Every structure is written in C-alpha cells, then in structure tokens.
C-alpha cells in the first residue's frame, strides 16, 4: 500500500492506492473518508453543485491521474489542460467533492467507467511526470546521445516507477525537455553575469560590433532574386502589351456623378463596387484565372468562386439589340428570370443581371446605339 499526500493551499487528504488501482485509475473507488462519519449531523455537507456540469468524465480522469502522479494540486493546475479553464480553487473544490461527497464521487466514477478505451488511452498518455520519473531520467547525462533502446531499457528496469502508459518515445521527448531547461543531474543553471560583464540590453548594444553583423554574400540567394526580378519584369511587359487589346475597362465607383458613357462606350455593367465599360460588340464575362483571361472579371465585384471561368457572352447585333448567352453551369437571372446554360436572352436598358449573388445593372448608351442603327439603315437602303 502506497500512501500519498495531496496538497493544495492546505492539506487535502490521504489516499490509499493499491497496485491494481494505479494501473487502471477507473477501478479506483473514491470512498468517502471516515472523517465524514464523525461530522456533526447538524452540519451541512460540502455543497459543490454549482459547476457540476462543467466537469466532464475526461476532466475527472485527468485530475485523478495528475494528482496520483504529482500529489500537488498547484502542479495539476499549471500542468494539466482541462476542457475548461478551471481555477486552482475550482480544482481544489472538485478534488474535495470526489473525496468527500458520496453523490458526486459516485456519479463521476460511473461516468468514467463509460468512457471509450481509446479516450482512456489518450488521457493516460497525457499524464504528468512524477518526481521519481524525472529523477530517473535526470541521471542520463546531457553529453550522451541516448537512443530509444536506452529509454526502453529504463522502462524495463523500473516498471513500478514509470506510469503504465509510458513509452520509450515519451521518455526521450521528456528527457530532451529536461536537458533544454538544464534540469539534468550533470547540468547547472548558469548564473547571471556580474561585474564588468553585460547585464542589460543597452550594455550589450554598446559592445556589439556592427561590422560582424553584416551578412556574408549569398550568391545562390542573389541568383534566385535576380531570376524572380526577371520574371516580374516579363509579366509587367506582357501586361503592358495587353493593355491596348483590352475591350472592357473597370472603373471604381467613387460616388462622384461622373458620366457612364463616352463616344466609344456601347454599354456598361454597373455593380456595387465597380462598373465595366463595354467598348466592343462582343465581350466575355466570368471569373479570370491565371491560365485564362476574360474581358469582364466578375471577381472584382465580390466573391465569385461559384461563377464559371467563362460564364457568358454579351453581343451587340447589327439592329442595335444586346443579347446575353449563358456559357456557364449556373443560371443567369435577367430581371428575375433565369437564363439557363446554352440559352440566350435580350438585354434592355436598366436590366438587372444577377449571377451567383452578384447583382449588376445593364445600361445602354442610347445615343451611340441610335447612331449605329441609323448607319445600319443607310447601309441597307444603299
């Protein structure tokens, strides 16, 4: 029988744990102490029902395992990650309830027994390291480079010291942490420098040699930067060459009452954020990608991931009528009427076009269209 004393801000209890209960904490029965039997009848039992719903069976099992490992509720509060951010007082009260409250302890024990074996294994793998375990790990010198076989041999030699779920990998990771924080037996924490040595940041800044801070020349990095700069300049030249061929101009709406049309604009698509000017008889609209460029990129207006890369085509016929053809998978709504894939629809002035939640108003330059119709009529008469 191993007797351990669990303490928080005050002495909590004495627990008697058998070897079987230590191997499987779920079999440990938290029976009320005989101290409760000596309590006066007129004294009310400990009432800890306020946060009963916050404590889950996994939290109770974590708490029990951590207390058995460290016997210190302060270490449990600092080292265990529960499902909620419990304060030290809440952890102490819960531990009191598990020990002395028969109702809460019985409910918690029944809930822990219903946990899935995988959940239990996951909780046991997070058990804190006890002082005895760390003492054995600290004996491995920091100058050595131990392999997994060394830690496995340590597990085999001291099965009663290490927690049952420990593996050689767990021991190696924890030993590396001990080494990192100078907690091994052959290590000592370096004292702060005294006397004429550097004590603060300003002193260190004065003694730094700026010449030593200059990085050495990296030819590989300079070559990669030169190639990246060359690619960027090539893309800029390509964009400059494509500028004259763009048929649709996108202008940000600024709230100023600027005219929508000029003598070259046939029509315009006005959205909430941008407006697109149509200056050729046929334009394509959709979602532009790196591999495919289109005339009207609807992604400039808003989220366009549902829009096809080539959603539709707007065409001006010789008689002055505008038509839109749906080339995408999603319907295009014109004044509330759906235009399905492969169909066409006539666009009138002030027609409302909606594509995947993006709404536009189609505006026609009536003066320019009237001139085009007049010229077409003259050509027909001739």
TrEMBL record:
One of its GO terms (cellular component) is spindle pole. It holds the Pfam family FHA. PROSITE patterns: FHA_DOMAIN. InterPro entries: FHA_dom, MCRS1, MCRS_N, SMAD_FHA_dom_sf. Keywords: Acetylation, Centromere, Chromatin regulator, Chromosome, Coiled coil, Cytoplasm, Cytoskeleton, DNA damage, DNA recombination, DNA repair, Kinetochore, Lysosome, Nucleus, Phosphoprotein, Transcription, Transcription regulation, Ubl conjugation. Residues 283-339 form the FHA domain. It is found in: Chromosome, Centromere, Kinetochore; Cytoplasm, Cytoskeleton, Microtubule organizing center, Centrosome, Centriolar satellite; Cytoplasm, Cytoskeleton, Spindle pole; Lysosome. SUPFAM superfamilies: SMAD/FHA domain. It comes from the Eukaryota. One of its GO terms (molecular function) is G-quadruplex RNA binding. GO terms for biological process: chromatin organization; DNA recombination; DNA repair; positive regulation of transcription by RNA polymerase II; regulation of telomere maintenance. This is Microspherule protein 1. It comes from Cyprinus carpio.
């Amino acid at each position: 029988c191993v007797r351990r004393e669990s303490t928080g801000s005050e002495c909590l209890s004495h627990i008697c744990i058998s070897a079987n209960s230590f191997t499987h904490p779920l079999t440990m029965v938290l029976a009320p102490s005989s101290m409760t039997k000596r309590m006066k009848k007129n004294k009310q039992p400990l009432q800890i029902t306020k946060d009963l719903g916050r404590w889950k069976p996994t939290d109770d099992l974590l708490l029990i395992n951590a207390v058995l490992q460290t016997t210190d509720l302060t270490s449990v509060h600092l080292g265990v990650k529960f499902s909620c951010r419990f304060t030290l007082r809440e952890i102490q009260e819960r531990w009191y309830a598990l020990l002395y409250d028969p109702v809460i302890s019985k409910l918690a024990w029944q809930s822990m027994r219903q946990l899935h074996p995988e959940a239990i294994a996951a909780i046991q793998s997070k058990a804190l390291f006890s002082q005895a375990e760390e003492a054995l790990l600290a004996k491995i010198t920091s100058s050595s480079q131990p392999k997994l076989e060394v830690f496995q041999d340590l597990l085999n030699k001291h099965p009663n010291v290490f927690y049952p779920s420990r593996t050689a990998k767990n021991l190696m990771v924890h030993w590396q942490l001990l080494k990192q924080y100078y907690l091994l037996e052959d290590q000592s924490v370096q004292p702060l420098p005294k006397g004429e040595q550097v004590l603060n940041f300003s002193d260190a800044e004065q003694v730094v040699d700026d010449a030593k801070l200059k990085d050495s020349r990296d030819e590989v990095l300079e070559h990669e930067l030169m190639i990246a700069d060359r690619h960027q300049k090539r893309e800029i030249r390509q964009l400059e060459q494509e500028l004259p061929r763009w048929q649709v101009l996108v202008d940000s709406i600024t709230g100023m009452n600027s005219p929508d049309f000029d003598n070259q604009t046939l029509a315009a698509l006005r959205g909430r954020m941008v407006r697109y000017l149509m200056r050729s008889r046929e334009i394509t609209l959709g979602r532009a990608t790196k591999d495919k460029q289109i005339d009207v990129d609807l992604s400039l207006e808003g989220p366009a991931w549902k829009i096809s890369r080539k959603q539709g085509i707007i065409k001006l016929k010789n008689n002055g009528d505008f038509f839109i053809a749906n080339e995408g998978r999603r319907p295009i709504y014109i004044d509330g009427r759906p235009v399905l894939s492969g169909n066409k629809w006539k666009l009138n002035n002030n027609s409302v076009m909606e594509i995947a939640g993006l709404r536009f108003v189609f505006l026609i330059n009536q003066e320019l269209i009237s001139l085009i119709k007049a010229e077409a009529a003259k050509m027909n008469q001739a």
